[in-house]
Design a protein that fits this description.
single chain; Elongation Factor Tu (Ef-tu), domain 3; 412 residues; 24% helix; alpha/beta; Ubiquitin-like (UB roll); six-stranded parallel beta sheet; globular; six-stranded antiparallel beta sheet; Rossmann fold; 3 domains
């Protein structure tokens, strides 16, 4: 056998091995694509019942001291508050992505607000990162009362009243690859999910797509880049919609434009990812619909639950149970106020309906997160368009996110 023929046989052998490897890889990726496209029932995301039991949470309000206060962005508009319990007792754990509810006693009023936890669970502290909300340009609306109070009047050593962590928006504990998408301050629950994932599941593939306007807005950018360097399975893409003249692609950011499915198509390998989204409502509306159009099963698309009714999803194909009573026949009775009023679908939530008729109800987030508007149902039934994050006690409802299903009597 000549040297030329030997080289030819070696070349043919290598070519055959490469062809076999490519065929196997194609088949594997095609199988993953079919799972992504069709939502194989055996690949569904585990639900909350599979989560391990957590440490006991407290009821009502608990006092926390501000241990640290840290500015997190170049513009100085986002500040992290590290909170430790004043009673010295252990902290309840939480699921990464959940939030804390605060009662703030301002000089002229008392308000309730919810803020996402922005770190993985730690035994010694909680962390929330809050963006200062200015007054809208060209509007008579005031700046955000809660966020500005935190920035201007809450200092190290101050005490805050806090409810236990809550919320149904949190990362799953499967080993499926995950895509975290944060727009603006919507990055906070993504940071909690990310830090937990890298600490508890370092082998899990994780992508973070972070959308802001320019280099003055990213939170903890240096820390995120350090995490990329330390974890080969973690990938981040900074997306600037309006970069500054000095911002350089490849150095300050990787994508000029908003986070969208076109970017996912070019950046993500073809795998059955779980998608978690938190950001401005227009961003979530466009991404949820676009992911569904791309073929991502609904069970793999999760988004922040504050105000979920504003996110329209494709209607599921299912039979609709008949209502027990026509809307024109529904009457809402407010027992304490002594008012009995006909309700129409255009009336909105029961909280909107009560306020429109001069009935005062304590409220906070107005999105089913804080529980401030929890009210006893004396008779009748209500319905929720989306499950609220705050779990109301039996026999009660959250007026801000429900409507009457039948005539109902409320203790309000």
């Amino acid at each position: 056998m000549t040297s030329l023929s030997l080289l030819l046989w070696i070349f043919l052998g290598l070519t055959l091995q490469v062809a076999i490897w490519l065929g196997i890889e194609f088949w594997r990726h095609w199988a993953e694509y079919r799972v992504l496209k069709n939502g194989d029932a055996h690949q569904q995301v585990p639900d909350a019942v599979s989560e391990p039991a957590l440490a006991s949470a407290w009821t009502g309000l608990r006092s926390f001291r501000v241990d640290r206060k840290v500015i997190e962005d170049a513009a100085g508009t986002i500040c992290s508050f590290y909170l430790v319990p004043t009673d010295g007792q252990p902290l309840a754990s939480f699921l990464p992505g959940q939030f804390l509810t605060f009662r703030l006693d301002l000089p002229t009023e008392q308000i309730i607000r919810c803020y996402s936890l922005s770190d993985a669970p730690h035994p010694d502290y909680y962390r929330v990162s809050i963006k200062r909300v200015p007054a809208p340009a060209g509007s008579d609306l005031p700046p955000g009362r809660s966020s500005n109070h935190f920035h201007d009047h809450v200092s190290v050593g101050d005490t805050l009243q806090v409810r236990a962590p809550g919320g149904h928006f949190h990362i799953d504990r499967s080993d499926a690859p995950v895509v975290l998408i944060g727009g603006g301050i919507g990055i906070t629950p993504m940071l909690s999910m990310l830090h937990w994932c890298l600490a508890e599941q370092p082998g899990r593939e994780a992508w973070l797509f972070y959308g802001v306007r320019n280099s003055r807005e990213p939170v903890m950018k240096a820390q995120l880049e350090a995490l990329v360097a330390a974890h080969p399975n973690f990938h981040v893409r900074f997306c600037f919609s309006d970069p500054l003249p000095e911002d350089e692609v490849g150095r300050d950011y990787q994508h000029h434009g908003r986070v969208d499915v076109a970017l996912f198509r070019t950046a993500l390998p073809l795998k059955p990812y779980n998608f978690y989204i938190c950001g401005p409502t227009p961003m979530m509306e466009s991404l949820v619909a676009a992911l569904e159009d791309w073929g991502v099963p609904e069970a793999r698309i999760h988004f922040e639950a504050f105000g979920p009714a504003s996110i329209k999803r494709k209607p599921a194909v299912a039979s609709v149970a008949p209502v027990e009573m026509a809307a024109s026949d529904i009457v809402v009775t407010f027992a304490k106020s002594g008012k009995q009023l006909p309700w129409r679908p255009a009336s909105g939530s029961l909280l909107d309906f009560a306020e429109a008729n001069g009935i005062r109800v304590d409220s906070g987030c107005r999105a089913g997160g804080c529980g401030s508007c929890q009210t006893t149902i004396q008779s009748g039934e209500v319905a929720y368009r989306n499950p609220p994050d705050y779990d109301p006690e039996p026999g009660t409802c959250l007026l801000c996110t429900c409507t009457p299903k039948t005539s109902v009597t409320l203790e309000a």
